[in-house]
Amino acid sequence: GDGDGKGKAPGLPPLTKEQQEAVTKAKKYAMEQSIKSVLVKQTIAHQQQQMTNLQIAAQRQRALALMCRIYVGSIYYELREDTLKQAFSPFGPIKNIDLSWDPLTMKHKGYAFIEYEIPEAAQLALEQMNGVMLGGRNIKVGRPSNMPQAQPIVEQLTEEAKHHNRIYVSSVHPDLSADDIKSVFEAFGKIKSCELAPDAVTGKHKGYGFLEYEKPQSAQDAIASMNLFDLGGQYLRVGKAVTPPKHALNPQLQISSPAGPGGLPPAAAVAAAAATAKITALEAVASTAAVVSGVQPGVSTISSTSQLLSQSMPGQPGLSIPAPGLVQLPQPVMASSAPGLITGVTPMKPAATTTSTAGPANLSNEEQRKKVEDDLPQTLGQQENLSISGSNARHMVMQKLLRKSESNVMILRNMVGIEDLDDELEGEVTDECGKYGQVNRVIIYQERQGEEENADVIVKIFVEFSESFEAERGVQALNGRWFGGRKVSAELYDQLKFDSQDLSG
């Protein structure tokens, strides 16, 4: 007994064959459980990450939706939704106008919320419409009051947008293509991409798009020079992009469902998720490459733009000021009850001829430049009849048009009071000012100095001459002169404001 046990280690007796098989099975089971546990943990972590991604995406979508909305206040009570739509649609497609309605008075309460399809349109309207006169009142444009809650995400999106030298262009004529827009905007620097938003209904575009420049300076120059540039009879609206490109906004989110009865085992779910993620990544890379290479249209000849620009667009007679693409109030707004009342407008004379700036082939660049500058029409009506051909000529015409234009408009203040208004006044002013040059039109504008019924009304008289030197001559002759016991104030009026129907200056 004792002698037999001395050589063996103390412990359990040797395992039988059955017991050894049981231990092997137990080890195998433990290993399987361990792998299963790791995979389940991985699956849960993966799902949590997906949920976080979804929450971030949802927050960004909410922020983007808020960025599409603006508040418009101080709206004259007789203005209707169609007038607001007309005034605000040049900045981009409007999704919805919510005009506050008072069921007791059956009138609106003087404010509205406008929702655009994209944030850039709202931003541009905010920058360019605040304080503009609509129906005789200076409207107020701002952000809705619930905007601050999304501010951190809005700022994050704006910050991301700064990494791309993108600009937003709206009020693009329906007959212009992306190539046309690119060829005009190339004057400011190399363009990486130029896309106009396609319209599935018309097969054309929705009137807006984005351009991305290689350099930030190019984008800044394009915004400064091209906003309110008349292209094909519509005034472009140009501003900076406030959101990053689409592919940066919508990361492809793959959600794999947890393994349930009859569902995939965790290992397969994870493997499938990994494979899906890999394919998604490959697709994302492929689609990004396609976008980058596919949206660089070749340099185009500006033939369709030339056709557009050379179409004859005579001025419209009657009350509305012919500035195509800008706010043109419907006639009822100009009725005698409106505070900002235009009582007389001489119709714009249609331009007589179409000017072609194509120089003969044998002219030197310098001669051609001189010819273009000499031939370039000065009035808005003539510019609308302008035909452009040849890249040199086009570039020169653009340079000329981009220069700060002199003013052909004289404003007369304190010439008459509201009690002096009669049907002959317009003719008298036209005759008097005709001594200093050719008068295109006279606008007599009554401006109410407040919103209350008994507010003072002052009368401003705008005289548009054919040439800027004629307007200057008129100012020199009439400023400080006495007229019917009143000392007249005469000065030049900002041409851009006048062209955009802003008579509030």
Specify the structural class: alpha+beta
Can you give the helix content as a percent range?
25-40%
Radius of gyration, in Å, reads 35 Å
Strand percentage lies at 15-25%
Report the sheet with the most strands, covering strand number, pairing sense and barrel closure: 5 strands, antiparallel
List keywords for this structure.
505 residues
Structure write-up:
With 505 residues, the protein is α+β, with helices and mostly antiparallel strands. It is built from 16 helices and 21 strands. The protein has helices at residues 2-5, 17-67, 81-88, 119-129, 151-161, 178-185, 216-226, 246-249, 266-294, 303-310, 365-375, 380-384, 391-402, 425-433, 468-478, 495-499; strands at 69-73, 94-102, 107-116, 133-134, 137-138, 140-142, 166-170, 191-198, 205-213, 230-231, 234-235, 237-240, 341-345, 355-356, 386-387, 409-413, 439-448, 457-465, 482-483, 486-487, 489-492. A 5-stranded antiparallel sheet has the order 13-17-18-16-21. A hairpin with a 2-residue loop joins β10 and β11. It is elongated, with a radius of gyration of 35 Å.
How would you summarize what this structure contains?
By secondary structure, this protein is of the alpha+beta class. It is 39% helix and 20% strand.
